[in-house]
């Protein structure tokens, strides 16, 4: 594929100016790093970094039946946030077999408006599925490709973002974690600011018009926020114990075996969400695998698809893996037999290496939790 | 364009080879290759005393991003490995052609090195890959 066929975000020129190494990322020409992926990782853990996440898909759902629609569409219960303007909820969208079509975040902005942010690679599939499930619901679905998104993450991210964007973000200073706010509504510089992210650090995800993206990006840079590529985004989310769609779960895996049971809400017996029946059947038959963190005891690097051997219990598989810049050890996520306890072995290039099984996350707010 | 020293020989798989005064060959990966791989975090060195054929995989370098095999440029026996890389794999990023060397071999046939690429040919290969 030549570069001209790749999609570019409104920040493409800014990336080139800042010396980004650009790669084909699911059809998008995206920065993987701006020099050193590891330095960018530490920048987010210790100070503040920003990511171009314009490739993510923003969808607005509007209409009087939006809550009823999402109540059936999503495995998590939208009732938790309905009537709480700005509140966010993480959920899986399942197929009838209980497999994961995508994971997403929804923001209940108004009784008749929910903003949904889904992944980039799954965009067409998600939109087709969401449309196919509309039925008679009074819900209008609009993809917002007129909007850009920048994630600002790190212990100093909120202070620096406030400095960079001026008074208009001040309303967001009081924003609680997992909440969003709309500021400068109706103006050219309308911004949707959410206190969410994918790094395990505090910060914002800022959504603005495509035309505003470069000035927001440059403003953040001038305030001291450093650009970070998708390489650091991956090591950060791994340390933070956050799943990546397509690696850690997909349409063939159950959320109950992907570390996502906490996002599946069975509490309302009357809520017949898509996939519920299949998941209840799985529970009745007994869940065979659990999703855990692994830390390699010696030197080496854990990678997706490496085989995991648990003595006396059977085999499992790494779904993600990397070298943790914060812990200076190889870490990963794995699906292992439910009986697995503290130790296992990982097969790397025909050698069996010892690894420790730990609870996720590995790192949160700059601190190592699992060592 | 990345640094490609004139005095070295090169392979298609992006190893560099320095012919030492005693006829042994020092091997590493090029500046271009380390740039593509990114921050190095682990190196699996070959065993000293082990013999390899030309183009046989004999070591592995791993960056945060990916693992990459290193191939023996010509047939020979490994006589020394850069053990410093076990604790400081980032030396490959810092200085690919010096501190970042990976292993040294005694070639079975000293003339084999003539079959490797010179700096100009390698520069052309890198150029072609970048476009």
Along the chain, the helix and strand elements of chain B come as EEEHEEEEEHHEH
Strand line-up of the largest beta sheet of chain B: 1-2-3-9-8-5
What is the 3D shape of chain A?
globular
Q: How many runs of DSSP E, i.e. beta strands of chain A?
A: 21
Side by side, the strands of the main sheet of chain A go 10-11-12-9-3-13
- Quaternary assembly: heterodimer
Name the CATH architecture of chain B.
Beta Barrel
Main β-sheet description of chain B: 6 strands, antiparallel
**What is the CATH class designation of chain B?**
Mainly Beta
Based on secondary structure, the structural category of chain B is alpha+beta
Indicate the CATH topology of chain B. Answer: OB fold (Dihydrolipoamide Acetyltransferase, E2P)
Classified in CATH, the superfamily of chain B is RNA polymerase II/Efflux pump adaptor protein, barrel-sandwich hybrid domain
Give the helix tally of chain B: 4
- The stretches of 5 or more residues of chain A where confidence is low (pLDDT under 50) are none
Number of self-contained structural domains of chain B: 1
Overall pLDDT confidence of chain A: 95
- State the separation between the terminal residues of chain B, measured CA to CA: 12 Å
Give the amount of beta strand of chain A, in percent: 25-35%
Number of helices of chain A: 8
Q: Secondary-structure element order of chain A, as H and E?
A: HEEHEEHEEEHEEHEEEHEHHEEEEEEEE
The gyration radius over C-alpha positions of chain B equals 14 Å
What do you see in this structure?
The complex is a heterodimer of chains A (371) and B (131). Chain A has eight helices and 21 strands. Chain A has helices spanning 12-17, 37-46, 66-73, 123-132, 157-165, 210-222, 230-239, 276-285, and strands spanning 21-25, 28-33, 49-52, 57-62, 87-94, 100-110, 113-118, 140-143, 147-153, 180-183, 191-194, 203-209, 226-227, 289-296, 307-310, 314-324, 329-337, 343-348, 351-358, 363-364, 367-368. In chain A, the strands form five sheets. Chain A has a six-stranded mixed sheet, sandwiched between helices. A six-stranded antiparallel beta barrel of chain A has the order 14-17-16-15-18-19. Chain A is globular, with a radius of gyration of 21 Å. Chain A starts with 11 loop residues before the first helix and ends with a strand. Chain B contains four helices and nine strands. Classes of the chains: A alpha+beta (371), B alpha+beta (131). Chains A and B meet through loops of A and strand 4 of B.
